[in-house]
Amino acid sequence: MEKILKDKGLTVIVMLCLTLGLAPYKPEPHIWGKLKWVWGGANGMEAMDFFDLLMHGTPWLLLLGWIIVKVKGLGVKN
User: CA–CA distance from 69 to each of 14, 22, 64 (Å)?
Assistant: First the structure.
């Protein structure tokens, strides 16, 4: 966990967001389509769709966690 909290971890997290977090890109980023589906009431979503949302959303949650840790000053001290 310490490696993720270091500045080099940000590069890895951003790369995860740009690849797994957005793929497939056409016709729109996959995570965006899933979020629109959830905001629309999640009608017809099955367990696999929620798992897919979790997999594509995890890099974004890591990025949000990294930002919160850095803003609050909770980072690992060397």
Answer: 16, 23, 9
Where exactly are the structural domains of the chain?
2-72
Q: What are phi and psi of 4, to 5 degrees?
A: -65, -35
Q: How far apart are CA 33 and CA 35, in angstroms?
A: 6
- The structure tokens 């967001």 sit at 17
Q: What is the spatial distance between Cα 76 and Cα 6, in angstroms, rounded to a whole number?
A: 7
Return the structure tokens found at 18.
């740009």
Tens of pLDDT along the chain (78 residues) come to 555 555 677 888 899 999 988 888 888 888 898 899 999 998 998 999 999 999 999 999 999 998 888 888 765 565
| CA atoms of 46 and 9, how far apart (whole Å) | 33
What is residue 1's predicted lDDT score, i.e. its pLDDT?
55
